[in-house]
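May I ask for whichever protein you like with its backbone structure tokens?
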Amino acid sequence: MPSIRTSEFRKTEGYRWTVNLWKPSLLLACVLMLPWGNSPARALDRVSVGLSALSPTNWAVWVAEEKGLFKKYGIEPQVIFIGGGAARSMNALVAKDVQFMIIGGVGVINAALRGADVAMVASNVNLSTQRLISRPDIKTPDELRGKRVGVTAFGSNTHSVLLMLLKKWSMKPEDLVILQIGPSPTMILSLEKALLDAAILTAPSDFIAIERGNRVLADLADLQIYSLQSTVSTTREYLKTSEDQATRFIRGYSEGIAFIKKNKAQSIDVLQKKLRLEPGQAVYLEKTYALYAGKYLDQVPYVSIQGVKTLLDFVSSHIPKAKSADPESFVDNKIVRTLENSGFFAKLYQ
């Protein structure tokens, strides 16, 4: 895969490196011995987190960032929107421009099969959250033949989901005209202007499209398609050298999930800010909250092995080695398992 130069990141994403200069002293040694959360004067570890898309699947990261939950565990997060499809996101991770990437599982599996040193360590959304929204005159999958269907980018999660649907319906990509459109608002506008006949959308964009007269042709969650919609991925090298830091990051991330489930109004405010939605679109955020809090977000963010198997089967058509790959080899659930065994998640939801 082509690499992303750090200098380019600094220019386009506002990426900045911070170097902490430590002076050894007895006082410092004493401070470091204090448990996280009890020392407001402690130094924070800068951790860069990449987002592969602007979507509610980033909700836990945004909440943990906005509500100081990462800082509670000694982490200063730098959240960076990368976009541009899975390949670009995995490039940034492998190049060490970020320590964690919030990305759909198919991108991680594709990268790992091609030799990248990456693994999924958590997943708060294992089910596919997207829906295929079509113009009102299209009522069945077969009526999509020859029609224009939009995805955000080729190689993105929306593209992978569409291909999974086609496989389920015994259809081929060449049966459609698949177009790379960009963000959800552009796809909604394209549906309205009849430039698209259907599009893969997620909340709250799908609710907006439906209200404007379009229909749900397929709901991936209702079809019980486990595609690892949102994983926390990193490199195995980082896990070996920075396990404590990674564990503290996952603590903050997991507390972000719990915060969403327990604090509706504040969580909606964060999502509205990050997605830059107008106040008049609050009704869509209410519906999005109901879906995520009640249906999508897992309290204990294990990476679903069933989801890995689903994706391996999906990519095996163009990556033959996927057929014999061990699903467990793409996952490192050690941190989540250790936290669960310690009672961490039970305390979060008491």
The domain at 6-128+227-348 is CATH 3.40.190.10 (D-Maltodextrin-Binding Protein; domain 2). The beta strands are 45-51, 75-81, 100-103, 118-127, 131-134, 148-151, 177-180, 198-201, 215-219, 226-235.
